[in-house]
Amino acid sequence: MGVADATLAELTSDQLRNLCEIAGIDERDPIRLLGDILGPAGPRPLAEPPLWPSDVADDATPVEFSMQFESDGNRHLRVLAEKLADEPGPGANLRATRELLTSLDARYGLNLDRLRAVEDLFLADDPQGKFAWWYSFIFGPDSMPKFKIYINPAMHGAEHASALVERALGRLGLDGAWQTIRDHALTRDGFDHPGFFAVDLDRGPQARVKLYVTHDAAGPDDAVRAARAVPGIDADRVAEFCAMLSPETEVFRGRPLVSSYSFVDGDQETPSNYSLYLPIRDYVPHDAVARERTVRLLKDHGVDPDLLDRALTALTDRPLEDNTGLIAHLSLRMSPGKTGTTVYLSSEAYGGTPQRAA
Ligand code: TRP
């Protein structure tokens, strides 16, 4: 069977199976969960248009892969995914997302306490914006899959996003958290926005609540200021990260820099983790350059860059020079005494990032 006849499920399962092998992860849960989340989109031949214009990836593929590396040697493989209904639409997709949650809970015994505490704030029959809820599946070499729900705080309209996030944080006992984030990350009126609100669905003490902030037209110093919300980390590393990945960029005017803060058990107004996400695909001529810079980043973090090349080969055999976007984002994660980096990889099932006009 040629690639042209393959379905979305076939292509993405092959990609995920390859990535599992590289990361030393048992493929069974990942492959089954991928099938669950793709649902009606899975059996569609790739020659047919996407079932729904998902914003998970630039080409409407409803999944995105990522490989996460920690300074303590830990590795995880993750899948960000949007659940689509049989007849997709904003409201129907959210209903399908919540139905899947019920069956995942039955199978894996999730901790839904955090989500239950806030979900009434984030329900709608006809949500606005590019999505309402997304999933992340997180796989490690020797652990059960973990789950996260990403919520679009603008699903009732961008003008309500801040107030909703503030209420949600308060309900989760994170009093003062909003103020901390506002003071450090939401300082540029009209340019900084709450991007995603995420809750972990597992029981570990590191399970957390995460708030993402989008920084339109921001520079590295804006990210450094955002990082200073977390005590005990070296915020200047954020500027080094930007300089390593996009040395010529003073203001990120393409796809925006994004900050995130994690609150774990015991945190109240002070997050214990800061991450910066850099959408490298908008700041390189093509993926060969993105790869070179990612190699440098991985070496800097003590990660064998061969893993990157194997991961890229696991996804595609297209020449890296042909387009950008196979490496979609890179992130730097910092908490006191610990750093990490994550490489976000596109499936390119529907052709990848549209080429920029010359
Ligand atoms: N595709 C969207 C974007 O690029 C959402 C997204 C997917 C994203 N993965 C991400 C955003 C990682 C930030 C970081 O904005």
UniProtKB/TrEMBL annotation:
Keyword terms of this UniProt record: Transferase
Example of a GO biological process term: alkaloid metabolic process
Pfam families per record: Trp_DMAT (PF11991)
Record GO terms (molecular function): transferase activity, transferring alkyl or aryl (other than methyl) groups
Entry keyword annotation includes Nucleotide-binding: no
PANTHER family for this protein: INDOLE PRENYLTRANSFERASE TDIB-RELATED, PRENYLTRANSFERASE ASQH1-RELATED
Name of the protein in its database record: Tryptophan dimethylallyltransferase
